[in-house]
Specification:
This protein has 50 residues and is mainly alpha-helical. The chain contains 1 helix and no strands.
Length: 50
C-alpha cells in the first residue's frame, strides 16, 4: 500500500510541477494571512470582552 501511494504522489507531482511552486507560495502566504488575521480578531475580541 505504501508503494502505491508514493507512486501516485510522484505522478501527481510531475503533472503539477510547473504550477507547484507558485501554488505553494500562494497557499503559504494566504494561509499565513488567514492565521494572523484570525489571531488579530481573537485578540481584539478578548480585549473587548475585558
Amino acid at each position: 500500500m505504501g508503494k502505491a501511494r508514493s507512486r501516485a504522489v510522484s505522478t501527481e507531482r510531475t503533472i503539477l510541477s510547473p504550477f507547484t511552486k507558485e501554488y505553494r507560495v500562494l497557499a503559504a502566504s494566504s494561509g499565513i494571512r488567514l492565521f494572523l488575521g484570525g489571531l488579530f480578531v481573537l485578540d481584539l475580541a478578548h480585549q473587548l470582552r475585558v
